[in-house]
Design a protein that fits this description.
Strand content: 25-35%
Low-confidence stretches: 1-38, 341-347
Radius of gyration: 24 Å
Number of helices: 8
Shape: globular
Number of strands: 29
Length: 510
């Protein structure tokens, strides 16, 4: 059992309302590792070419660096403590990393740090210090060109996508004549096909949605929308790149709040994450006095993960959803990760996953008899281990795992840690879920493709983060005794906070 920890309090003043929010903060549950990596040089970052939606960054290579991370934030702030986004890059990209998804006519600040390999594949440790911030601007958009060409929905289809855009900044003058035409072309490594017009629209129409059909699975396409004028030349939007779904992979959107009071992204290998609903449920019930994370210091990160499409319907499972929630057979059994955090220095770079433990099974509303069969009877304890079958564990070590979560959330109705294992409530409502990500089959960072060398999942190098100040400003509540209404409200707040990031909305795999 862990020793009782002395807590402290932090107060944060909200920028918009100037209201101070004071919260009880738990101390770290670990000591800093006694083994430290060789000091990495602090890189020097410079701005290169800039477009309306992107900036190119360059830096001199750091000796021994295996990976780099760029954080994007607001100028004049300590952006490493509250960035909008994180982008990982390989040493080969030091000569020019394009940071995309930016808004036109905006100033952004960037910092860079290098990873020197300590901490292994999970990248929890081994990072050097951040560089000095550089401020770069995107170009202002052509006032007569359509703006913010993007997907109209997050749905990722094999043969089509829907596009939408904002009208030219010149407004009524642009709408007086002409119309819009949407053009698309395929982009491959070998060639770029000719533009083809897929739809036309009147300026005055509010219907600025174009359905692009006749596409091929797993292909990359470039799109523009052109504003046609009667007396002046046409003005095209900035080109945007979109992808269709691949027949052999699927995309998911995991969220993860950094545990162990880490202040930056802690990535996914041998870690658990969740859908937005699943992670917000955990965060709401953990509150801010949890020793796992500090709401004002640990980011809630939105990742995109591409995983192999598999059919595991024949798997002899030793994890289970409640009978009312069907099993999703494209996932393996969920396994409980994030272990060894109390064993520095070895545990730091060597996080482990084990058979889905008792408390996670209770949170999943699994029947008491099922839990007791695999985990033994007795009280609920967070680290009480269970026994999974060899076939189940082998699948979970190879493929992404999933566990459905439900409302009402567990701590309201099934007792705190140390209680007897009860049956789930009579009525439950599916509400997202949790993922497990096995490190042994993760594809190489930034460059790996699913299937390379038998890897089964890869993390998109781009991620977005929100912190406590942004969450509270968006309506997040920190209750003493959380309710279902608190969780639902916090999901809305988290969605609002992510949408407030001044970058182009994007969907996973698009």
């Amino acid at each position: 059992m862990r020793a009782q920890l002395t807590r402290r309090w932090e107060c944060h003043v909200m920028t918009v309302s100037l209201v101070a929010v004071c919260l009880e903060i738990a101390p770290p549950i670990f000591a800093l590792p006694t083994v430290s990596p060789a000091a990495a040089e602090v890189p020097t970052l410079t701005c290169g070419a800039h477009e309306t939606d992107s900036v190119t960054l360059r830096w001199a290579a750091v000796p021994g660096a295996t990976l780099y991370e760029v954080v994007v934030g607001a100028p004049g702030t300590s952006i490493e403590h509250s960035p909008y986004a994180s982008v990982t890059a390989t040493p080969a990209q030091a000569s020019g990393l394009v940071v995309a998804d930016l808004l036109d006519g905006h100033l952004y600040a960037f910092k860079l740090r290098a990873h020197v390999g300590f901490g292994g594949d999970q990248m929890v440790l081994g990072w050097g210090n951040y560089s000095n911030a550089v401020t770069c601007s995107t170009l202002s958009a052509d006032p007569r060109a359509p703006r913010r060409l993007r997907r109209a929905t997050d749905a990722l289809a094999h043969d089509a996508f829907d596009l939408t855009w904002d009208p030219p900044a010149s407004g009524a003058a642009a709408e007086a004549t002409g119309g819009y035409s949407v053009k698309v072309r395929e982009v491959t490594k070998a060639a770029v096909t000719d533009w083809r017009v897929v739809s036309t629209h009147k300026f005055a129409s509010q219907d600025r949605v174009s359905r692009v059909t006749g596409l091929m699975p797993g292909r990359t396409y470039e799109a523009i929308v052109v504003a046609e004028y009667a007396k002046i030349k046409a003005h095209a939007s900035t080109a945007a790149v979109f992808r269709t779904a691949n027949d052999s992979t699927i995309w998911i959107n995991p969220h993860r709040v950094s545990e162990n009071l880490l202040t930056t992204v802690d990535f996914l290998a041998n870690h658990n994450s969740g859908t937005l609903q699943g992670d917000v449920g955990f965060m709401t019930f953990a509150g801010n006095s949890s020793h796992f994370f500090n709401l004002f210091g640990s980011p809630l990160t939105s990742f995109c993960v591409e995983m192999a499409k598999v059919d595991l319907s024949g798997l002899n499972r030793t994890s289970s959803n409640p009978p009312s929630i069907p099993t999703d057979n494209q996932f393996a059994d969920y396994i409980s990760c994030n272990g060894n955090r109390d064993d520095p220095p070895n545990g730091w770079g060597n996080y482990t996953c084990v058979c889905d433990n008792t408390i996670d099974r209770v949170i999943a509303h699994q029947p008491a008899a099922f839990i007791e069969k695999l985990c033994g009877d007795g009280p609920i304890m967070p680290e009480k281990l269970c026994t999974c079958g060899a076939e189940s564990l082998a699948a979970s070590a190879r493929y992404t795992g999933f566990m459905a979560t439900s409302l009402p959330w567990i701590h309201m109705h099934r007792g705190p840690s140390g209680s007897p294992i009860p049956d789930p409530p009579a009525t439950i409502t599916p509400f997202g879920g949790w993922y497990s990500h096995p490190s042994g089959t993760k594809c190489a960072d930034t460059t790996g493709q699913v299937g390379d060398g038998g890897c089964t999942w890869r993390r998109d190098p781009r991620a977005r983060m929100v912190y406590g100040a942004g969450l509270v400003a968006a309506g997040w509540v920190i209750p003493q005794n959380a309710t279902t209404a608190d969780i639902l409200g916090n999901v809305k707040a988290a969605t609002k906070a992510f949408n407030a990031i001044p970058m182009t909305p994007r969907c996973c795999g698009c």
